[in-house]
Amino acid sequence: MGDVLLQNLWFHQVQGVVIENVVPDGELVAVRARAVAERVVCPACGTLSSRVHSRYVRRLADSSVRGRPVLIELQVRRFRCGQRLCRQATFAEQVDGLTVRHGRRSAGLQTVLERVAVMLAGRAGARLSQTLAAGVSRSTLLRLIRRLPEPETSTPRVLGVDDFALRKGHKYGTILIDIETRQPIDLLPDRTTSTVAKWLADHPGIEVICRDRSTAYAEAGRLGAPNAIHVADRWHIWSNLTEAVEKTVVQHRALLREPHDAATAQAVADTENTNLDPPSPRGPRTTGRLSDRIREQHAAIHALLEQGIGLRAIARQQGLARNTVRRFANAASADELLVGRWTGRASILDPYKPYLHQRWAEGCTVARRLFEEVRERGYPGGENVVKVYVAKLRENFPHDPPHKTPSVRNVTSWLTRHPDRLTEDQTQQLKAILARCPALDRTAHHVRTFAELMNNRQGRDLNKWITSVRAEDLPALHTFVTGLGQDLDAVVAGLSLRYSSGAVEGQNNKIKMLKRQMFGRANFDLLRKRVLLTARCRS
């Protein structure tokens, strides 16, 4: 055990310490040692002194050995300063690599806990420290992070800028990344133009700024680094193009559905004057549980009437309402009560059935949507009546199209995806849609051209592409092109240079992970140190 502990002390590269003995004390291992340096430097004036004033014992927690905590009982000395004019008459000696002023942990254990705090923060770090037999609380670990010196910030040649949420929807900060090393440089407490511009002005030498399409960051770059080249991120450019394509698909969504078979459409149209309700008999019903009960009640009531019993007494005896008994008494036979009970009745939906037939023939089979449409035309009834009627239509005239109608999102994805990544069925459906809709066909052509321009880094041809788009009647793409023109130089650079903001987005995801680790204690100062120090620990 003594050899292992000796190696443990040599791990700290301790010089001027002599181990006297090692005393196992239950689960604790106590190491008794003393400092033996002949002369010590005064921390106030720097004068060497060998005059010992007194001695005392310091107790330091050290890194565990074989899962057992270690306590170092170190005898240190207090020296007298030999400089008569020094403001510090006496001072305590410190052992380099082992002790720090007012510290109750060895320098080695302090370094380990600081690394644990940076990587895992509060609760997770506290649990790991218990496993390392050097248990500390989560608050202690957070204090260790705050006491660490400020990380040095360098000036990168290629800078990435993006915002991140301190409190989503309410407060945002700015993260700065060295694109070439993919390491975070600094975090700013907000995303205002003035804050970012001041940071850029304080760090001259930036040649390229990679950013999204934010006007605030564009203006900050022009103010703080006027000579830097702005590079718009390709992912954001493609995302904006996808939004424009989706708007175009929405405008022509009626053409996404394949036309139905003509015979089926005509059969549904012929139901305009057809009642889909089941036929009902016009005479009285002679069988059935309800008809049998009515006949029995009619016979019983008339038998009581012949005995001279009044309507009120009959109602109490039979458990019926008095008006019901009166209706039975006035009917000469039970057939009078049964006629008309099962005959067809007029429905409040009748005036709107021709419209429902028309919409069914056009391919609209969703009961909820049909209900909303007839309600806009004055239908006063409830949705359930429409659902029942649509169910009858579905039973009599089922729709069985060869393909399910693709959604707007699906068609947008097909238009903006590489053709080689589409299945054969998706390719056939997209081909049929483009054949039915010339506007989408032209949009697909422009999207493919832009994709080739972006993948081949042919930003110089962007103006030619913009001219061809403006010659078409495609309003959504016109809006996209107008947005490109507002930041044209950065877009051309983004489509020409190899730089992108991918590293920035990756660091943004790491920030989200660190925030989740710290739950509600991710204040900006603590978060900033963790982001910067974690990156340095990993490197």
Detail the topology: elements first, then pairings.
Layout (H helix, E strand, L loop, with lengths): L1 H10 L5 E9 L2 E8 L4 E2 L6 E2 L2 E14 L2 E13 L9 E3 L14 H14 L2 H9 L6 H10 L10 E10 L3 E8 L4 E6 L4 H10 L5 E4 L3 H10 L4 E4 L1 H18 L10 H8 L19 H18 L4 H8 L3 H9 L3 H5 L14 H10 L4 H10 L6 H14 L11 H9 L7 H13 L1 H18 L6 H9 L4 H12 L1 H7 L7 H17 L5 H15 L1
Parallel strand pairs: 2-6, 8-11, 11-12
Antiparallel strand pairs: 1-2, 3-4, 5-6, 6-7, 8-9, 9-10
| Architecture (CATH level 2) name of the largest domain | 2-Layer Sandwich
CATH class of the largest domain: Alpha Beta
Helix/strand-derived category reads alpha/beta
Share in β-strands: 15-25%
Mean pLDDT: 82
- Put simply, the count of helices is 23
CATH superfamily of the largest domain: Ribonuclease H-like superfamily/Ribonuclease H
Structure description:
- By secondary structure, the chain is of the alpha/beta class.
- The chain has six domains: 2-104, no CATH class; 110-147; 158-233 and 501-538, Nucleotidyltransferase, domain 5, CATH 3.30.420; 236-256 and 406-494, no CATH class; 262-277 and 347-396; 289-338.
- It has 23 helices and twelve strands.
- It has helices at 2-11, 107-120, 123-131, 138-147, 193-202, 215-224, 234-251, 262-269, 289-306, 311-318, 322-330, 334-338, 353-362, 367-376, 383-396, 408-416, 424-436, 438-455, 462-470, 475-486, 488-494, 502-518, 524-538, and strands at residues 17-25, 28-35, 40-41, 48-49, 52-65, 68-80, 90-92, 158-167, 171-178, 183-188, 208-211, 229-232.
- Strands 1, 2, 5, 6 and 7 form a five-stranded mixed beta sheet that branches. A five-stranded mixed beta sheet has the order 10-9-8-11-12, with helices on both faces.
- A hairpin with a 3-residue loop joins strand 8 and strand 9 (171-178).
- Helix 2 crosses helix 3, helix 7 (234-251) packs antiparallel against helix 20 (475-486) and helix 17 packs across helix 18.
- The radius of gyration is 43 Å and the shape is flat.
- It starts with a helix and ends with a helix.
- Residues 9-13, 261-265, 278-284 and 340-344 have low confidence and may be disordered.
